[in-house]
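Supplementary Methods, section 5.1.

A reviewer requested that the exact input to the structure prediction be made available. We therefore reproduce it here, unchanged from the version used in the analyses.
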Amino acid sequence: MANSNEQQARIKSAIGTITLTEAIRRLSDPAAAFRNPVVPGFIPSRGLTVLYGASGTGKTFAALDVALRVAGGLPWGSRPLRHGLVVVIAAEDPEGVMVRAVAAAQSLDALDAPIRITRPPCPVTDGSFGGIVSAVIRELAEETGLEPALVILDTLGAAFGGASQDDAGPMTMATGQLLQIAEQCGCGVVALHHTSKGGDRMRGSQVLHDRADAVIRLSRSAGSVRGEVEKARNGPTKGGFTFQLGAVDLELAGAEPIRTCVVQNLVVDADSAGRTDARPKRLSRDAQTALDELRRLTLNGEAVPEDIWRSAVTIAFGERKPGALRQALSNARTILMERGMALFSEGFVSVSEPSADRQQPNSADASITCQPSVSARPPLKRGRADADADGPIGGMSDESEKKPRSARLIAFPAAGASHGR
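The structure derived from this sequence is encoded token-by-token as follows.
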């Protein structure tokens, strides 16, 4: 009997138990993990999110846009994000990821953001993957003085090794390793993934969908990319976002420009975070200023070039640092789009009445204008929309001093066979 009681005590101590009172206390804590998601309504604070779509849907571009905003303490749409260290594990085309990351950082004025890019230390199906990655992330957290907020694996398939993605066993191991990182580092993990050959579902074993805490699907139509929440373990399974990919020339000192893309014209559905308040909130001061300038410029009811509106708003905002001006203008533009108060199409903007069914640019050949730099040295040249945004991207210069520290390539300690593309 004594042995039985001792065994039960050991089991209880090992698994831990809490009362409902303790549960209420933990759930009431403002610092509780579930109260601080990485991206409200889309990426939980701890857990695995799968972002998947067919080739050409801009998965990497969308993920890096979120990554730079999280690392740089910038909002996504009009909602604040959890700020912290971001690590991108580039299993597929690491050099291309660096190009896209630097372009995104320059467009957001976030070159100093704490984001680190690396290759996987071994296949994600290896039982040591989670432990090695977690250890390196903790070292980076100590180096930067920031808590880890987000880890991105690009892509799950490229990091899978020789195992079959259709087999439940290897997929169970892979998801287990990613969830281990989320738990040990207290951060969100996003795995980029492809669709099946038929394009009608997520590639591989059903285990991936079942073990993921959130699943978001990207699809492309009429010059825009649409993201839809297909699964949210602890939230509403509705809502999404829309964006476009604008082609830009990334200019590096002493090297030929590199053509790539950045996320533009992001619109996040109003109900994506589960809000039910039907009363419209008052516009922020900057958004109201931007709207007033638009109304002034469009008194005759005709659309005006967006560059003219941007210049007028920049003057109306008054004296601010270039980065602050850029971000304020971006935020105001997003708010007006989300509220349906302004229509942006093919480089022109006009006033629109708020509507739930507001129009979106519907031309596959529409030219997408990049945000013009307010600083004295515009780092990006504008280009037209890239219809094949997930296609091959040119490599960067090998001279390490030309790579911003925020996007440097770090190396994991050797552990078994290294795994790249």
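The longest strand covers residues 240-250. These observations are discussed further in the main text.
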